[in-house]
Amino acid sequence: MEPPNLYPVKLYVYDLSKGLARRLSPIMLGKQLEGIWHTSIVVHKDEFYFGSSGISSCPPGGTLLGPPDSVVDVGSTEVTEELFQEYLSSLGESLFRREAYDVFENNCNTFTNEVAQFLTGRKIPSYITDLPSEILSTPFGQALRPFLVSVQIQPPGGSPVGRPNGQS
Amino acid sequence: MARAREEAGDSRLVSGREPSSCIIRVSVKTPQDCQEFMLAENSSVHHFKKQISKRLHCDTNRLVLIFTGKILRDQDILSQRGILDGTTVHLVVRTRLKGTLPGPGTLSGRTGHCTHLSEPSTSESAGMLARLGRLARSSPDLADFLGQLAQLLVAAPESVVQLLESPAVQGLANEKPADASHAPESSRLVQKPESALKALETLQNPARQQELLQADKRELEALKAVPGGDNAVRPVCSDIQQLLLFTPAPLGASKGHNPGSELCKEEASPHVNTDPTAIPTALAPARPLVQKVRAGEVTQARCVASNQANPGYGTGMPDVNSGQDLLSQESQQPAGRVTVASQLRPSPSALRRASHVLQQNPTRLHQLATGSPLRHRMPLLPILSNPRALQALIQIEKGLQILSKEVPGLGPCLWGPGRPHGIREPPETRGGGQGQRADSVQPTLAVLQLLHALANACSQPTQSSSSSSLLTEGCYQQDLEHLKVMGFANCNANLQALVATGGDIHAAIERLLGVPEARAPPADAHSAPPHGEGGRGRGGEGK
């Protein structure tokens, strides 16, 4: 049996605040945040991310966010593209439906964490997944929470990923 | 069972992989749920799959088990693969058996690249995008067309979207990719864009604020990467449309009887009844809002837009509503204009403008307070051309509004130190003003004061040469450089002029010329426009 192909898996990390969080967080939150992180998984030469309109994909760096602020190597996977598409479709109907988007509890980073574990068994760096709790543990974050829960992040430039017969 | 688990735990502690058949608990995680299975450590994957198929009632052929990125083969032994007690294995249940070649496979297999178009390897539900991409690959003419389409999408997106929606293109998109049919289709498609291009070019002329279009074209190159930009542009453009309706309305609402804004409103109103996905030609003012995808900038757009015209989105932004109330009260406009403001709630741009105006013209602040309409027309473009400042303003405003509402006493504490030079009013007046006026105008003013105080506090550790607030330094950096090049050597005066005119470099130059220390000859004023526009343009897309 020939060795299966190994596909590299990368995590693209974007700072949605473009440096503002690093500058303003000490004043506004009382603690230092390095950024407001949006992440996506890049595998099989495509970038996959979860936003308020569901799971989307685009060419790597192809959203309006531009190129990522940093790239983390997650590992390698044997999961083929076809299998991965099935998996994503399945995710898009269950845990990551578009309605299931929640900026704190079920956001883009939740998605990439899930996918990274599926693909490689590894999680994404904790400073990314800890971000919501970091913010919510500050009085400012708590005060803003009612307003922030309605925030929907959806970087434009991607197209939806879903089952062939219908929307995800 | 517990004993078995203990044994498994002990064995793990001792050696990690004993040949004895310990029962281990393995979690099987599917996209839907997670289930636990108890089985022997040295059982085969095949056996494992049988157990899974029994519980999930599906064929073992459809099961694909993945552990740490590796696909588990039937003949593997669990322990050899490192699957121990308590580990999690991922499961995908195929919808198709392995033998068949599903649609996504074909699509992804043909992921090619043509000009600046590349097809995302999504499933068939990608629809028109994928098919257009395939058509483009099969015909270079089509590739050019789609490239031009993308460019024109920037220039006059409305017609392009209409083109995309036209029955001919839809028919093309829905047809199965058959090589034989590509040639006639592509020729049809090419003919169509030629006429469409002409139509689009004519539409381009009446488009307002083209300078911004030039500047922002680069920002939308990502859209070019997606053929037609259908999926990407539609929601964005519908949001932009809504924003566009909002920006002229509050422009008039808060600034007084402004015939210009009336015009804007009238121009915008015809778009109200158009297809929600049609993008108004006056895309430019809202374009910077699009390009601020970084944070919740797009989310802001979506929230505001969604809040208004499309209840289906269902996301409310209560602070925008309160902002609307603030603005309408602030301006104390006649009922008609207030109605307009309430119907088309002000976007964050209105809040931004208000903040800038109030920052630069504290006397006008009083005017607003006393009810006289504000004549000063805030140039919208420079404000909109600085997405970071705008976003920072909005985010801070939101937070500070809550703060000021919740803790009104907090405001005076922050107003004292570090007052930006742009606000020349003494804090007492502000505090007095806040105390007097019990209406909700106060939070906005307090908000803005806090905002500037905060901004100042931030900017002090990072003093730039312009020595202005955080919000203005990035905004006016380009303009400041240009003024310097033109001969206005006094940076502080330049900055003050820019701040006073809201980033309008022409007005700033005039202002500077009126000041004794300005040394620039009148000739420079004439050469200012290209510089100014270039500066704004570059500033707009500067990251």
Automatic annotation (TrEMBL), chain A:
E.C. number(s) listed in UniProt: 3.1.2.22
Stored Pfam families: Peptidase_C97
Keywords: Cytoplasm, Hydrolase, Nucleus, Protease
Gene Ontology CC entries for this record: cytosol; nucleus; protein-containing complex
Catalytic activity: S-hexadecanoyl-L-cysteinyl-[protein] + H2O = L-cysteinyl-[protein] + hexadecanoate + H(+)
PPPDE domain segment(s): 7-149
Record's keyword annotation contains DNA damage: no
Entry GO MF terms: deSUMOylase activity; identical protein binding; importin-alpha family protein binding; long-chain fatty acyl-CoA hydrolase activity; palmitoyl-(protein) hydrolase activity
Location in the cell: Cytoplasm; Nucleus
Nucleotide-binding in keyword set: no
GO biological process, one term: protein desumoylation
Family statement: Belongs to the DeSI family.
Quaternary structure and interacting proteins, as annotated: Homodimer. Interacts with UBQLN4; leading to the export of UBQLN4 from the nucleus.
Role, per record: Protease which deconjugates SUMO1, SUMO2 and SUMO3 from some substrate proteins. Has isopeptidase but not SUMO-processing activity. Desumoylates ZBTB46. Collaborates with UBQLN4 in the export of ubiquitinated proteins from the nucleus to the cytoplasm. Exhibits palmitoyl protein thioesterase (S-depalmitoylation) activity towards synthetic substrates 4-methylumbelliferyl-6-S-palmitoyl-beta-D-glucopyranoside and S-depalmitoylation probe 5 (DPP-5).
Name listed for the protein in its UniProt record: Desumoylating isopeptidase 1
Source species of the chain: Ailuropoda melanoleuca (Giant panda)
Gene name, Swiss-Prot/TrEMBL: DESI1
UniProtKB/TrEMBL annotation, chain B:
Region feature (Disordered): 308-338, 519-543
Amino acid composition bias (Polar residues), ranges on this chain: 321-338
Leader peptide range in chain numbering: none
Compositional bias segments (type: Low complexity): 519-530
InterPro entries membership: UBA, UBA-like_sf, Ubiquilin, Ubiquitin-like_dom, Ubiquitin-like_domsf
GO annotation, cellular component aspect: cytosol
Domain UBA: 474-515
Domain Ubiquitin-like: 24-96
GO MF annotation terms: polyubiquitin modification-dependent protein binding
A biological process from GO: ubiquitin-dependent protein catabolic process
Superkingdom of origin: Eukaryota
Ranges of biased composition (kind: Basic and acidic residues): 533-543
PANTHER family the record matches: UBIQUILIN, UBIQUILIN 5
Protein name: Ubiquilin-3
Protein species of origin: Ailuropoda melanoleuca (Giant panda)
Protein's gene: LOC100478509
